[in-house]
Amino acid sequence: xxxxxxxxxxxxxxxxxxxxxxxxxxxxxxxxxxxxxxxxxxxxxxxxxxxxxxxxxxxxxxxxxxxxxxxxxxxxxxxxxxxxxxxxxxxxxxxxxxxxxxxxxxxxxxxxxxxxxxxxxxxxxxxxxxxxxxxxxxxxxxxxxxxxxxxxxxxxxxxxxxxxxxxxxxxxxxxxxxxxxxxxxxxxxxxxxxxxxxxxxxxxxxxxxxxxxxxxxxx
Length: 219
Prior knowledge:
The protein has 219 residues and is α/β, with parallel strands linked by helices. It has 2 domains: 3-127, Rossmann fold, CATH 3.40.50.2300; 144-216, Winged helix-like DNA-binding domain superfamily/Winged helix DNA-binding domain (Arc Repressor Mutant, subunit A). Helices cover 53% and strands 13% of the residues. It is built from 11 helices and 5 strands. It has a 5-stranded parallel beta sheet with strand order 2-1-3-4-5, with helices on both faces. Helix 2 runs parallel beside helix 3 (63-71), helix 6 packs parallel to helix 11 and helix 9 (172-179) crosses helix 10 (183-196). It is globular. The chain starts with a strand and ends in a 7-residue tail after the last helix.
């Protein structure tokens, strides 16, 4: 399968550089680019990419609001990786809350960029678990959402356990060891959690866990 990529950045040299890097990969194709958020939203609707590489600071419409528009569409819409030069928790949380599946600094290596595209195209989330938990915890500790609480109430007792462990930053293998079950069983539970919430990926599920208060409940 060829991964279709859209590049949104207000700097032409950045767009060209990313296109050159990704075009050398046999499983990737750059289907378009955009120099601002408005163009990115229109291009995403026109080209239907699998992954959008989105800069945060762009004219006319910024990357965060463009991400919200793109991610509020169809459930099978593109995954968004936020690209920025700003290593800042506030930007990171805003990107995740907007629906992004990943966050990558622009000084990352070419290999990191390629890996990021593959990870989110396969339904993964591009963030180290410890970073994800730290940022979401900090941003949501004093926020609760009745909608998120209602969504979590649809989960079984075991699915709630799995979601709490996801919020702790554990991988599927680590969750399997903690619950003394097979990793395939954990994958099934995670898939059901994502479906019931509903959540685009693990990051969005963890945000729901924190906003609902589930991540803070005693074990």
